[in-house]
């Protein structure tokens, strides 16, 4: 073989594993779908049962399920804020309403988990359609505050005037049967599958998580998603090119409400409980923190932010002495990350991995941060 052929072969091989090739692959829908499936299969095991790794995390299976459900909530919220630029401080209204609708349907009509979740999601969409007629007439801070007001109105409505239906602060117990009359959610597996997923409940939630990730990825890459981004960047210019901005904002609002409603229905099925606290304003605040901390406008960011939030709340909270200050520690972490990297933890990860491709760039980035120069945290990472 000649030297020229050897160089040609090496060049072709290197092009297959180049950074440009990786950048193309990681943004494809197939890769995102595969990554979400692998994440679901490995997350609970790594978090709660894997050797060494689980000892570091000190997690447990029940918390893994909760994180998946809240990740769906955060992804739905991020579709509205990160993709379309509409900041809602009242998204707990969809989460809580879906939980109550699911609970009431399970108690009085039919308690198959699939039917219960569908009803909860539809209830959130119906509420979203009504709320959108009010909220989409408003802009900026007025949109945010009125959304908060609607959420608090529903909270107090469920707590006092409708106490006969909602049971007020005591909440509702949610019965559940086997899915389609076949799959018991409590059923636990043995062997490798048991190590990975433990039971049907985790698989049930995981399937919805993967479906939501796939759906949002499709939306982000579709012409509809591009119009959402255009509205986020400049609503006036988007209207000038002849697009009906209100219609697209309405669609984004309903899509967000549907995904958050799905999370609310799943939470009712998971905990077999629906309570008034899921309508409270602090729930809306929590999901804002998760989304911004992880990375606003990204796909992985809300999931990472949800994990960090519940790690502090569910694990650090249990540490001796230190656990008393878990919320302070979370606040300090949030402030530090967002101050240095406006794209949150995901922005930090992408900035560092991008700099590692070129050591000189990494040194320059560190020097810039130390001396107060230009920050690489403002560069890549906004859109994953």
Helix content: over 70%
Looking at the chains present, what oligomeric state does this protein adopt?
Answer: single chain
Shape: globular
The major β-sheet equals:
2 strands, antiparallel
The number of E-state strands comes to 2
The end-to-end distance, rounded to whole angstroms, is 42 Å
Given as residue ranges, the uncertain stretches (5+ residues, pLDDT < 50) are 6-15, 375-382
> Helical segment tally?
19
**What integer is the average pLDDT?**
88
Query: Biggest sheet: strands side by side, in what order?
Result: 1-2
Structure description:
With 384 residues, this protein is mainly α. 72% of the residues lie in helices and 1% in strands. It is built from 19 helices and two strands. Strands 1-2 form a two-stranded antiparallel sheet. The longest helix has 27 residues, at 245-271. It is globular and about 65 Å long.
Which features would summarize this protein structure in a list?
384 residues; mainly alpha; two-stranded antiparallel ribbon; 19 helices; 2 strands; globular; disordered C terminus
Q: How is the secondary structure organized here?
A:
Blueprint: H1 3-16, H2 19-26, H3 29-48, H4 53-57, H5 61-84, H6 92-108, H7 113-135, H8 140-159, H9 163-166, E1 172-173, H10 191-197, H11 200-221, H12 223-233, H13 235-240, H14 245-271, E2 273-274, H15 281-294, H16 301-314, H17 326-340, H18 344-356, H19 359-371
Helix pairs in contact: 3-5, 3-11, 5-11, 5-12, 5-14, 5-15, 5-16, 6-7, 6-8, 6-14, 7-14, 11-12, 11-14, 12-14, 15-16, 16-17, 18-19
């Amino acid at each position: 073989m000649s030297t020229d052929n050897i160089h040609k072969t090496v060049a072709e091989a290197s092009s297959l594993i180049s950074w440009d090739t990786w950048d193309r692959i990681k943004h494809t829908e197939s890769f995102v779908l595969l990554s979400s499936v692998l994440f679901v299969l490995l997350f609970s095991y790594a978090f709660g049962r894997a050797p060494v790794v689980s000892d570091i995390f000190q997690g447990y299976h029940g918390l893994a399920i909760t994180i998946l459900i809240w990740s769906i909530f955060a992804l739905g919220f991020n579709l509205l804020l990160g993709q379309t630029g509409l900041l809602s401080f009242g998204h707990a209204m969809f989460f809580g309403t879906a939980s109550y609708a699911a609970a009431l349907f399970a108690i009085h009509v039919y308690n198959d988990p699939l039917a219960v979740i569908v009803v909860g999601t539809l209830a959130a969409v119906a509420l979203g359609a009504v709320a959108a007629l009010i909220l989409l007439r408003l802009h900026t801070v007025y949109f945010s505050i009125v959304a908060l007001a609607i959420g608090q109105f529903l909270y107090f409505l469920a707590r006092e005037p409708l106490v006969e239906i909602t049971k007020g602060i005591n909440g509702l117990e949610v019965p559940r049967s086997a899915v389609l009359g076949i799959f018991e959610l409590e059923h636990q597996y043995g062997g490798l599958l048991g190590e990975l997923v433990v039971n049907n409940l985790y698989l049930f939630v995981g399937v919805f998580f993967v479906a939501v990730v796939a759906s949002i990825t499709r939306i982000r890459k579709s012409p509809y998603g591009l119009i959402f981004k255009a509205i986020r960047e400049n609503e006036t210019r988007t209207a000038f090119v002849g697009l009906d901005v209100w219609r697209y904002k309405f669609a984004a609002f309903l899509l967000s409400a549907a995904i958050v409603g799905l999370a609310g229905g799943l939470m009712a099925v998971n905990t077999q409980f629906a309570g008034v606290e899921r309508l409270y304003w602090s729930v809306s605040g929590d999901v804002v923190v998760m989304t911004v901390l992880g990375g606003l406008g990204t796909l992985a960011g809300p999931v990472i932010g949800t994990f960090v939030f519940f790690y502090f709340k569910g694990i650090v909270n249990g540490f001796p002495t230190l656990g008393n200050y878990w919320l302070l520690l979370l606040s300090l972490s949030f402030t530090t990350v967002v101050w240095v990297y406006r794209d949150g933890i995901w922005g930090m990860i992408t900035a560092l991995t991008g700099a590692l491709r070129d050591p000189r760039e990494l040194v320059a980035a560190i020097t810039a941060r130390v001396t107060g120069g230009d920050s690489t945290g403002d560069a890549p990472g906004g859109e994953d």
